[in-house]
Structures are given as structure tokens and as C-alpha cells.
Amino acid sequence: MTETKKQKKVRQESSGPVGQNATVSSRIFDVLNYVILTLIAFTTILPFIYIIGASFATEYELATRPMFIIPRDVTLDAYRYIFSSNKIASAFGNSIFITFFGTLINLFFTVTMAYAISKTRLRGRNFFLNMVIFSMFFSGGMIPSYIVIANILSLKDTYWSVLLPGAISAYNMMIVKNFFQGIPQELEESASIDGCNDIGILWKIVLPLSLPVLATFGLFYAVGHWNAYFGAMIYMSGAREKWPLQVLLREIIILANASAGDLNAMDPNFVQPPEQSIKMAVIVVSTVPIMCIYPFLQKYFVKGVMVGALKG
Amino acid sequence: MSKKREQNKAVYGTGKRYWERLRSDLIRDKWLYLLLFPGLVYFLVFKYLPMWGLVIAFENYVPYSGVLGSQWVGWKWFEYFFKFPSWTRYLTNTLILSVMNIVFYFPAPIILALLLNEMRSLRYKKILQTLLYVPHFISIVIVVSITFVIFGSSGIVYKLTEQLLGHSINYLGSPDTFRWMIIGQTIWKETGWGTIIFLAALTNVDTQLYEAAMVDGAGRLRRLWHITLPAIRSTIVLMLILRMGSMLDTGYDHLILMANALNRSASQTLDVFVYQQGIQQGQYSYAAAIGLMKSIVSVILVVSSNKIAHAMGEQGLY
Fold first, then answer.
1. What architecture does CATH give domain B80-311?
2. Are residues A270 and A203 in the same domain?
3. What is the pLDDT of residue A260?
4. Among B15, B50, B139, B284, who pairs with A144 as Cys (CB 3.0-4.6 Å)?
């Protein structure tokens, strides 16, 4: 006999820490728990709701009304303003460019190395593995990396300076490697009998089986690229036309707000603070892409974290 | 070690046979080595070359002369730092921020995970989780931007405090508020996401324990305290070890966004120092020396906290 959905629900909810005995104190606990958690979740998203609402408000309303979620006069002025010059639009384009090609580079480097290292027959495999693991515990740090990228490789003010330095996350690579090791050997062997070499096997057999894993890490890498600002800030400081959105955002909201004499205000590109609603609109525009992929992220990220937690 | 060598000999043969075998293996796996090549180059260039570049901490590095051509100065930069009267301020700022992080942020995901675990309705729990994970995916620049818009002098919180207290609080430009702003942002951004690892550990709790405790008349809080919390004890210890290892890391990408001239006395941590000296002022060798010292102390911290965990009977990190 199969259990109905309702029965299953009852079973799940009655076992575990909750229990099925609805004593008074247990009920009070439940009510408090619901209230506290709802408040916490509300606090988490309240800033977003406020910013979205305020970005559609007029400057006058923002200055006079102490607090509101839905503006009295809805206006698109702030959005019209930020898209009137192509500053934001071009930074948006740069961010998309960096995210797209950065993620492709990430996946290429991660998958090729993970596949090679997943083969136990590979001579020198332990050496390569230890090399990767050691880099997870010790690193040269900010300054030597800067010297390698800016002075030795001369990548300053090029897109390569943000695309290449993070090409492989050692942690992600190890998880992908573990996944490849879990694929049945027989599938690959049959292909090699058919005359496929290792690259052919990776492309025709292994990758089609790993699409969910590729999606998970692709999304993680993509979010990382979209959100990154530090690399672009220090390596592309002289190439404003290549700036991604995050660096521009830092300039127009954070630097513009800071007082003179600030450590950041030594920046030669100091700009005047824009109006409040425009800042809000810029924040909304930079957050929208993340919100668009959030449903996909949510589908995969818990899985990704779990794989990492179990095997990493 | 020698046992392993014996095994290798048995598998691969010795002398001439060994080299023949190696050659044929390398030829057999030529495509695998080709696949390995890009990643190998990546690790050598972007991970190991900077490690070698740490020698500049003992040099007077000038970009024009390069790492090999610069003058060797030995321990000069380390001595220079400790002669510098306010070096203790950088260290104390770092430690205060780390301790505040452990005291106020560290327990937050644990408490939240315990509360979520007590949810009766699984559907509502899912909805709450969906909302709570959102800030993790928002960039730190946006988090700080939102803070500036809300706490800045034309922001809603700034105005409300002015009305409620009768005087204003300079949230963004004062050393007294700086650390609380940093901790607050961290709690807001990472608490929800931090619950995942604890919730995963909680799924392994044997439900029979709860039933047995109920028969014995244990209420919700007692079950939480005596069953649920001990079940995630080793996860908590593990996370604490990881946190101890990064005791000296204050997150430079977060801090340099919040740091300014007015909150300088609280915002200057070792990370900020490395960034300001190295990237902003071009004192590469000096900054690299401080960075090197930080990395070495971090490794010592991880190893010793792991030892403590073993002594406490926990599994630890390794």
C-alpha cells in the first residue's frame, strides 16, 4: 500500500524534534517560533523591498515622508536618468561580458583538469593532487598575486586580469573530480574500444552525463563573476570603459558618499553624489540579474553545497 | 615511505624496465596530459608563482628591477613594522573585529538552523529558507551600497534616529559604529546561508531519540538542548576551527568599502593595512612582509585549534 501525500505529510511532521503531542507549552513554542522566524525573514528582505519602492519615488517624497514601502507618486525618472547616459548600460554590458566569458573559462579549466586528475592510472597524479590541496591552505597573498598579474604578466587594464586569476577554484575542481570518479568505468571503456581517445570520451560520454554538475558550478562561477569588484578595481583602475557594474556602483554610491580626505577620495575620479532615488535605481538594476537566476540557483546550490560538505 | 617505494618497484619494475614502462604510460595517456596542461599552468602561474613571489618580503622590490633584480634587505620590513608605534592598533582592531565576529555572528546560523528545524510546516519552512538565502548571492558592493543609502545622512534610518533620539548618529563615519555596522552586515548577509551546513547535520539525527525523550516527558526545549544541539556539536566545532584559522582575516573586500577617514581608528586592520600600503601606496615589499606574517600565524592557528578539537574528542578538520 502506498502512502498518500497527506499521510506522508502527517508522518514527516509528527516525527523529528517537533513531536505530535500538542501540549500547551509546545503550542506556545510553535507560535513564538513562527513569529520569530517570520520577523527574521521579513528583516532579510525588507531592505530590498524598501529600495525597490524608493527607486520609483520622487526626490521630494523621499525627502519629506519618513518611511514608506509604496510611493505615493510613482515615477520612472530615476531609471530614465540612469539610462540617459550610457555609463550604466555600458558597465552592465561589461559585467555580462566578464560573467559570460569568465564562466566559460572557469568551466573549461575546471573540467579538463578535473577529468585528467580523476584518472587513477595517470602517472604523477598524487603530485598534482597535492599541489592543488596545498594551494587551498596556503597562498602567496594579495601583494605577490598583484605583482604576478600586473608586473610580470602585464595584464593590467585588460579583461584577462579579471578573467584568468580565478579560472579554477580548487575546491570546486575537487568536487567535479569526485563526481567524474563516480561515473561507471564501463561506459568509458566501451567508447575507448570504439576508437575514442580520452578527449573524445570526455566530450561525448562524460560531459553529457555531468550536465547538472556543470550547471551547478557554472551558476556558482557566474554569480562570483557578477559580484566581483576587487580584481577589476585594482587591475583595471586605468580603463574606465572596461569597468563592470560593481566597480561603477562603488564609485557612484560609496565613494560619492564618503567625506573628503577619505582614503578612497584620493581616487582621481571623484564624482558628486547623485540623488537618492537614482542610487536606489542603480542598486535595483545591478541586483536584477541575480534575482532572475535565483530560482535556478536555488534548485542547484543546496545540492552543490551538500556534495562539497560530504566529500570535500 | 620505503614500503611505498617497494610497491612502486613491484608495479613499475626497476631500472631500464621502469623507464620503458613510464614512457609507454606517458604515451598511452598523452591526451590526458594535454587535458591536464591548462589547469597545471594555471596553478603554477597564479598560485605557485605568487608563493615564490613572497621573497619580495625580504627585498626592496622595485617593479623596474623585477623580483630577481631587487636588493635583498633581510628582515628590514618586519623590524620596520614593529618599530612603527601604532602597529598594535592594527593588531587590536583585527582581533576585536574577529572576536566580535565569533561572539555575535558565529552563533547566529546555529540558532537560526535550530529554529528552522523546529518548524512544524515543511512548506512554510521552505518559503522562509528561500527568503533567507537571498542576501548571500548579493555582492558586497551592493550590501554596502544599500547600507549607505539607508544609513547615510539622507537615509531612512538616519532620519528616524534623528527624530527618535533628538540627535543624529553618524553611522558611516564614526569609529564607535564601524564594527557594529560590519558585524550587522555580515549577520544580515550570511546567517541564512550559514544554516545550510547545520541543517544538513540535523537531518542525520535519529528520530527515535526524540520519541524516547518524549516518552520520558521531555518538552520541546529539553529535547532541543539534550538531543538536537549535541547532534550538531562536531559540526559546530569544525566551523569554529575554520573560523579560528581565519582569525586574522577581516575580509578586506568588505572592510575597504566601509573604511574612511572618519572611522580610521577602528577600521584599520591588518588586511586594510596590506591593501593601503601595497596596492594604494606601492610599498610592495612592506605589504608583502605583513601579508606573509599573517599567513604564517593563520597556519599556526588552524593547526593548534585542530589539536584542541582532538583533545576535546572531536574529529576536527583533518
1. Orthogonal Bundle (1.10)
2. yes
3. 38
4. B50
Same domain, residue pair A186 and A269: yes
Provide the pLDDT for residue A6: 56
B253: nearest CB among A202, A230, A283: A230
A-interface mutation test, from B46, B296, B302, most A Cβ less than 10 A away: B46
Q: What is the rounded CA–CA span in Å between residue B296 and residue B301?
A: 9
Which residues in chain B are contacts of A14 at CB distance < 8 A? none
Q: Fill in the DSSP letter of residue B279.
A: I
User: Are A197 and A127 part of one and the same domain?
Assistant: yes
Domain harbouring A150, CATH code: 1.10.3720.10
* CB-based contact B39 A168, cutoff 8 Å: yes
What's chain B's average pLDDT?
88
List beta partners, residue B59.
Answer: B72
Burial class, A288, CB count within 10 angstroms (exposed 0-12 / middle 13-18 / buried 19+): exposed
The model's pTM is 0.87
Asked whether residue A136 carries a pLDDT value surpassing 50, the answer given is yes
Average pLDDT over residues A202-208: 89
Q: Between B128, B279, B287, which is nearest A234 by CB?
A: B279
Residue contact A66–B159, C-beta within 8 A: yes
Q: How confident is the model over A194-211, as a mean pLDDT? A: 87
Q: Which residue has the cell 542603480?
A: A282
Given a cut of 80, whether residue B93 has pLDDT beyond it is: yes
**Roughly how many angstroms between the first and final C-alpha of chain B, as a whole number?**
20
Quick check: A254 and B292 CB within 8 A?
A: no
Same domain for A153 and A195, yes or no, is yes
A123–B50 C-beta distance less than 8 A: no
Would you give the DSSP letter of residue B47? I
Using CB atoms within 10 A of its CB, is residue B216 exposed (0-12), middle (13-18) or buried (19+)?
exposed
Distance CA B19, CA B4 (A): 18
Of A18-22, A120-124, A201-205, A255-259, the one with minimum mean pLDDT is: A255-259
Distances (CA, A) of B189 to B132, B141, B146, B173, B193: 9, 12, 12, 21, 8
Q: 3-class DSSP state for residue B72? A: strand
Looking at this protein, which amino acid is placed at residue A49?
I
Instruction: Give A244's contacts in chain B (Cβ within 8 Å).
Output: none
B279 contacts on A by Cβ (under 8 Å): 142-143, 146, 234
Q: Which of A14, A35, A257, A282 to mutate to test the interface with B (most CBs of B within 10 A)?
A: A257
Check: CB of residue B157 under 8 Å from CB of residue B150: yes
Reply yes or no on whether the pLDDT at A263 is more than 80.
no
Are B141 and A246 inside 8 Å of each other by CB? yes
- Per-residue pLDDT tens digits for A27-42: 888 899 999 999 999 9
CB–CB contacts below 8 A, A to B? 308
**A108 pLDDT band (50/70/90 cuts)?**
very high
